[in-house]
Write a structure and sequence with these properties.
With 193 residues, the protein is α/β, with parallel strands linked by helices. The protein has 6 helices and 7 strands, in the order E-H-E-E-E-H-E-E-H-E-H-H-H. The chain is 37% helix and 22% strand. Helix 1 (29-41) packs across helix 5 and helix 2 crosses helix 3.
């Protein structure tokens, strides 16, 4: 698929865990970003038979399906594959928005393909789709001291982090829009920090 030749729709999947108790966790930044993108398109999420909530519309001139899998993070691959098949989206037009431990808090990296870096949501999607989908990696940094990774990602952002969280989510949403409208290389040039 050449840059900008694809007529859509794009499938933009925010990764997270369903349920109010997880809503503000670090692991749920993907949900936060697609919620903001849905607001920008004036769309509401609705239940879909794929075990996901979806919102459809246009962003930056592109047809987009936003999705939040309603399975838990480590089972994201099933709903994402069902949506890809239902909307007939090539794997290269799937974008996973997710938390990333190996990037400093509030930094971003966009890429196509690659490994899962131990991220259970990506592991599940890659097992279902293969690795050749886009990722918008939202940095959450590493856990302090000896805190377990699982405990860290399932905690809410700290008070200090929350001061920048709205800006971070907004910038992450901007990066998704740039990826869709300008292509990967230009979006990387702007947002890979």
């Amino acid at each position: 698929m050449s840059e900008n030749a694809y007529e859509g729709p794009w499938l933009v999947v925010g990764l997270g865990n369903p349920g109010e108790q997880y809503a503000r966790n670090r692991h749920n930044i993907g949900f936060m970003v697609v919620d903001l993108l849905a607001q920008r398109m004036g769309a509401k999420f609705k239940a879909h038979k794929s075990r996901a909530q979806v919102a459809e519309g246009r962003l930056s001139g592109q047809r987009v399906v936003l999705a939040k899998p309603m399975s838990f993070m480590n089972l994201s691959g099933g709903p994402v594959t069902a949506l890809r098949d239902f909307y007939k989206v090539p794997t290269s037009a799937v974008v996973a928005v997710h938390d990333e431990l190996d990037i400093d808090y509030a930094a971003l990296r966009l890429k196509l393909g690659g490994g899962d870096n131990g991220h259970n949501g990506l592991k599940s999607i890659t097992k279902s789709l293969g690795p050749d989908y886009h990722r918008v990696r939202c940095g959450i940094g590493r856990p302090p001291g000896r805190m377990e990774v699982a405990d860290f990602v399932l905690k809410d952002f700290s008070g200090t982090e929350r001061k920048e969280l709205d800006w971070f989510v907004d910038r992450s949403a901007d990066a998704v829009e740039a990826l869709l409208s300008e292509g990967l290389e230009r979006a990387q040039g702007t947002y890979n920090s």
